Amino acid sequence: MRVISKPNEMQTNVESLRNEGKKIAVIPTMGYLHEGHTSLIRKGRELADIVITTLFVNPTQFGPNEDFEKYPRDFARDFQLAEEAGTDFLFNPVTEDIYQDGYNTLISISGITDKFEGASRQGHFDGVATIVAKIFNITKPHYAIFGQKDYQQTLVIKQLVRDFFFDLSVVVAPTVRESDGLALSSRNVYLSPDERTKAVILFKALDEAEIAIQKGENRRKILNAILHNAIRSIPEIKIDYACAADADTLEEPDVFLPGEHVILMIAVFNGITRLIDNALVTIPQDPQVKKHYFV
Amino acid sequence: MRVISKPNEMQTNVESLRNEGKKIAVIPTMGYLHEGHTSLIRKGRELADIVITTLFVNPTQFGPNEDFEKYPRDFARDFQLAEEAGTDFLFNPVTEDIYQDGYNTLISISGITDKFEGASRQGHFDGVATIVAKIFNITKPHYAIFGQKDYQQTLVIKQLVRDFFFDLSVVVAPTVRESDGLALSSRNVYLSPDERTKAVILFKALDEAEIAIQKGENRRKILNAILHNAIRSIPEIKIDYACAADADTLEEPDVFLPGEHVILMIAVFNGITRLIDNALVTIPQDPQVKKHYFV
User: Fold this and answer.
1) Which listed residue, of A147, B105, B228, B284, carries a Cα 20 to 30 Å from B3's Cα?
2) What is the CATH number for A241?
């Protein structure tokens, strides 16, 4: 595995690899890698000839009161995990090379970003779209691989790729979980042992709502109530949002129709740590119990 | 010459040409080609193996009260001029394929866009940056060629390329002029015979200011006054702006230093037609008359 820090050196390498006919996959990360990230790297290994993992804690996607400064960093560990998972190039730039002196350009995405993470974290997705566009132009991938855990982010990136004609495929890989169901996250390191135990309620709440859908529940407000009620069983956890939405548009109809894809999304504060999780569910054509079906 | 309308078909062609090692130049235009554009196409022909001319009247760079609807269009003439000048691919998309249903993404550039054209035409440069980023991703050029006549636009595009790491060279080619000095522009077709005669004052004003610089004038306000006084000799022409600025940053120091590059820029309304022109001048190390030099 080769470590590259300079954008132009990365570009020269990928341009020459592309000219040799090699297929390139990029896995953009903020480092502090875990099994969620390494599953994405292994996915890249399956799809492409060359796998680039990027490590960059992107300042423009953090709000003024967020955890940019204290976001966990461990280059030696990231190096080892990235290499073991099959990375060819570890792109590890400094902030000054990505946001050069006098930088003045931002990508702004509306619509899909108005709600949920976009509403709770003003400017977050503009920062995400901007850094991802830079990484795409630096690494020139055929495949860009993202985790489903940041579900709304995957929609934002698909919109970016479509609107700007980036010539690549966006691949979304499933969330990796601890044995009790907690979604892996670099931010889990912030949790106290007690908070860690309680954090499993996100998965449990998603699971309850998913079971309800399989049994025929298709009313959005009822699904939201199932999520809220489950999380409220742990009073220390404060809900930011917990809701069901159309998985493609994030629209919120009263009732979801058979065959529609629904995204169940949760964001909470567990102590001072903000955690998110989600589940993608398809409304059954033939639910197990036709309770509320086209009432 | 081959005409292509679909973005993905254009991409497939350039990707395959790049894989053959061909160098690609793109000349983005809004059509209604004139000798200014064809000089850019010939420049592309010199630099690259494959020349792509794009024709697209970009709605997002026009303000609500501007001339989008009546902007002149003539595909048959553009086809002939582009082919004669040495175009390999004429990319001629429809609006719906460039701004697809549900598009929600905009590039926003600050700083360099705050003044002059950016101030007079709110949102103009965001529209320019957005369409140019799309064209770059669709045509994947090694060289992108623009005319100096839209001087501030060339700075915006250089900032876009730098901030987003587009792997290409921006080439700026000189303004082409009529025999009396009027800069070629698709909008000149709007001018009445009388307005056409009077329009030469832009070139004359730039010429006067340039002569003053060669003779040692380096004070910005005096240069601005020379431009204003010259244009005011034609009372029917209304000045939007006429001024000297640092050619790289558009900053406006009181005095320009020897060796500095100065851009003299003019925008006027000639009847209802908005015209712009500019001249790039270097402050002499040894002016012909040391009149105001380091007073």
Assistant:
1) B105
2) 3.30.1300.10
